[in-house]
Structure formats: C-alpha cells, structure tokens
Amino acid sequence: MILSTTIFASTLHLSISSSPSKLNPLIATDSASGEIADWIFDSLVGYDKEGKVVPKLAESYRFENNTTLIFKLREGIKWSDGKPFSAEDVLFTYQLITSPKIYTPYADEFRYVKRVEVLGKDKIKVTYKEPYFKALQTWMVSIVPKHILEKEKDIMTSFFNQHPIGTGKYTIDGFEVSKDIVLKANPNYYIHKPNIDKIVYHFMPDPSTEFLMLKSGKLDVGSLTPLQMEREIDEEFKKRYNFFEKMSNSYTYLGFNLKNPKFKDPKIRQALSLAVDRKELVDILFFGHGRVCTGPFMPKTSAFNPDVGIPKVDRKRAKALLKEAGYDKGHPLAFEIVTNSNNKIRLYAAQIIQHQLAKIGVKVTIRAMEWQAFLNTVVMPKKFEAVVLGWGLGLMPDAYSIWHSDGYRKGGFNFIGYKNSEVDRLIKKAEKTIDKEEFGKIYRKIFALIVKDNPYLFLYIPNSITVVNRDIKNVSSSIIGVMHNVIDWIKP
Predict the structure, then answer these.
(1) Is the pLDDT of residue 7 over 80?
(2) Predicted confidence (pLDDT) per residue in 199-233, tens digit
(3) Are the CB atoms for 123 and 87 separated by under 8 Å?
(4) Which residues contact 96 (CB under 8 A, 6 or more apart)?
(5) In Å, what is the CA distance from 150 to each residue of 90, 93, 109, 234?
(6) Residues 200, 218: Cα–Cα separation, whole Å
(7) On the chain, which terminus has fewer CB atoms closer than 10 Å, C or N?
(8) Is there a contact between 326 and 355 (Cβ–Cβ < 8 Å)?
(9) Exposed, middle or buried by CB within 10 Å (0-12, 13-18, 19+), for 9?
(10) Could you give the strand order of the β-sheet that contains 170-171, starting from the edge strand earlier in sequence?
(11) Strands, DSSP E only, in 350-455?
C-alpha cells in the first residue's frame, strides 16, 4: 500500500489599478511600484501592528550615544537567488541611495548620516552628524543586493528594475506593463515561508471592474468606495467578506504650480481657497466615510494642529481678491487641473471643484490621464498648472521631502515649487529635536504656516474600507493595515 500526500497550493487574489514603473525600491516613487516592491524587499527595521519600531533584517539595534547606532543582523538570511545577505549589502544600499547614480527622493532620509561602517559580516555601525529625530526610521528603507547591482552602469534603466532579487516575503520573475502580476512565496523568508503560496495581482485600471470582481467572489481582498459601501452591496456580499474600516494615513489635495505666474500671487490662491467648499466636497463624495483635511499632517499625530480649522467659504471675498489680482468677468482666471484617470473619486473631486470655482468666475478645465503617463510627463517634469493628487504618509511625520525648498529638484517630491524660509528653518530645527513634546510644537507651527500660504488646497482624508474573504484565517486589523501579518494568513 502506498501512502501519498497531496498539497493544494493556495492563491491570494488581489487587484492593482496601475502598472508599476520600477520595482527597485530605491527609485520606486509611485504607489503601484511601492506596493509590489514591499512584498519583494525588506528593511533593517519596520513597524509592528501597534506602530512600534521593531527589528526585521536586523536581529537587534542599540544606540551607543545620541549620534551612534549599532545594528546586529540576523544570521542565515538569503537573497531570493540563494546568495547570502550581509552587512555589505546594507553599506552598498547606503552608498547607492546617496550617490549621483540615481535620482531618488529617498536620499533625503540619509542627509544626517556621517558614515556607515561594516563591523564584520553581521554588524553595522551608523554615525550621524548630529542627533536626528528619525535616526532609526531612516533604516526602514529597503535593502538591495550588492552582488547584483554593484557592476550596473545605469541603475535607472537596469534589468533589475523589472526582475528584482530581494529578501522579502515573496519573489517575482518579472512583470509586463498592463498585465497581471504573479508573486510566489519565498521559501527562505527569515520568519517562515508564507502560508499562501502565490499572490496574483489582477490588473484593473477601472475601479468598477474591481468591484464587479469582488461581487463575483473572484478577489480575496479589495477596497470599497463609500458609494459602494452604502448603496451597492447586498447581503450575499456581506456574508462573503469581513469589513475593516479606518481613517487612512493619506490625504488628497489640489496643488498649484507655484512657478506659474497664475499662482505666484498669494491673493489668487487665497481666493481659490475661499471659493472651495471642502465640507460639501466630503459630503458628496464620502457619505460619512471621510473627513475634511485641514493641513499637511495627519490627525492623531503630535504634528496635527487642532487650532487650524476648516476654511470658511466666502465667495464674495474671493471675487474681490481676484479683482485685486487683475481678474474679472472680462478677463477671467482660467487654468487646467490634471489628475489620474484610474482614481474616480479624485476625478469627481476635480469636477466638483470646477463647479464651485465657476461661482466666482474661474474657468477650470480638467484632464484625466493614465497614471504612469501622468507621473512621467506631467508631475515629475513639473508641466502642469494644477493637479489633484494625494500623499500617503508614514506614522512618523516628516515635512522635509515635500515641504522644504530642497525638495524642488529632479526626482524631488516638492514638485509644486513651495518655498518659505521660516518653514525651511523650522523643519531643520525639528530634525535636531529629540524631545517629542518640543518636536510636536515645532511641527504644529509648520502646519499653520503651510496652510496660511495655500500652496495646496487640502481637500479630504478618506477612510480606508477594506474587505477580506471570510474563508481566510488569522486576519486582524492594525494601525498599519489589515495585511500586516499576511504571512500567517491561511486560505483553505
């Protein structure tokens, strides 16, 4: 008699609305690339489900003093091609991200690092120029393999960017633009091999297609819009999925190109702010599943300034300011808002803003573009008048990359060209502030100053509504999202 065991491979079905551009995490600046790269790569430290910093590729860390950090690396970790991971990879990643070979906003995270030293194959010493409030969080950057990339002549166009080698939970053979993406469980992942053998990201540029796939039970995890949540799901849908809702760590804004003559005058930006009714916008779009955004840092953080309220609508004053700036019925202010076509809520937001601004005589046109084309031909080259976009923020507030004037450069996140010398000074001051209470005070000042300048019209903070197949075991909510423990999920 012969005994045999049959192992049924399990597959997690997800969706993605735009194609990644590059899966090298050091140069991946769009959300699609970042989401896929997060499965493939890992960092020295990260956040746990409670939002506390914990070791990952590092086994432990300690501060020798307020400018010296020591990492002890885990033993036995391998890259997905079987090569051993070591301290040399960490040093190489630091040298690469801070080199002129690549254009990346993530280099800003390392601006206070004086040097990185290898103290054997499993130990790293980091020396900072001075105390830095994000000394530990700096090392949440993904580590890349030295043995693959050290001989690359052009990192920006490397084969590696489409066929990455990592130390993360899953691996990928490669991807094609506008195609499904398949990830396979990494059998050598340092915690344990993920219980789910394969992840398939189904490419769905139209959000309505994702919803139809969810309704038919062909996706295991997905997002719902407030309209879908309130009006378009039935009892069968509710029986199929568990629901997880929380305020997202992100906001959406209308950003102005401050180098464009139309928006250099602060009176014009103030007039537009007075004309946009954020509360009406949120009421129309979110059915109670979102809130008005009042500034650049998230509620429930020490950087949030509760004294800065929702701007009051005053269209009479808005018209007067436009007239002072030289615009009237005979010579109306006209500009174009560009946004990405795969985010319907942003497109609807632009249309509502268009309608609201028409009430003060401003003529707005709207252009919706495919995500990568939008980023590569409009946003990063700074070829726009105004954009509707969003930022996803980390748990630790950091204004530097978006709001410091240093960020207005090739590959930088300050693509609107914002510059306020007092904001620059306060950002630098906060970076050297270790005391949490003092740090919060400084950031609340930054919050108020930015809002006063109106470089963005801060619009809304959506709730994140995630649904997960009820058949999947070990799913739980978390401050960092429902998929924090995905390697422990079990799908029958």
Answers:
(1) no
(2) 999 999 888 899 999 999 999 999 999 999 999 99
(3) yes
(4) 26, 102, 144, 149, 155
(5) 12, 10, 22, 54
(6) 11
(7) N
(8) no
(9) exposed
(10) 11-16, 198-203, 181-185, 170-171
(11) 363-369, 386-392
| Residue of 242, 132, 164 lying closest to 469 (CA atoms) | 242
Q: Alpha-carbon distance 436 to 34, whole Å?
A: 29
The b/e string for 225-240 (b: 16+ C-beta within 10 A; e otherwise) is: bbbbbeeebeeebeeb
> Tokens 């080199």 sit at which residue?
99
Q: Of the candidates 25, 87, 99, which has an alpha carbon nearest to the alpha carbon of residue 59?
A: 87
Confidence at residue 268, expressed as pLDDT on a 0 to 100 scale: 98
| DSSP per-residue codes, 314-331 | -HHHHHHHHHHTT--SSS
Name beta bridge partners: 62.
70
Contact by Cβ (8 Å): 423, 403: yes
62: which residues sit within 8 A by CB, 6+ positions away? 69, 70
Using alpha carbons only, give the angle 50, 199, 389 rounded to the nearest 5 degrees.
65
Q: What is the pTM of this model?
A: 0.83
CB atoms < 10 A from the CB of 49, how many? 15
The DSSP element (H or E) to which 272 belongs, if any, is helix 266-275
Torsion angle of C-alpha atoms 24, 30, 33, 37, degrees rounded to 10: 60
CA 384 to chain centre: 21
Residues 80, 166 contacting (CB under 8 angstroms)? yes
Residue 311, burial from CB neighbour count under 10 angstroms (0-12, 13-18, 19+): buried
* 250-463 under CATH 2.170.130.20, yes or no: no
Average pLDDT, integer, range 345-365: 97
Domain boundaries, the chain: 250-463
- d(CA 406, CA 425) in angstroms, rounded, equals 12
Which candidate, 132, 139, 119, places its Cα nearest to that of 67? 132
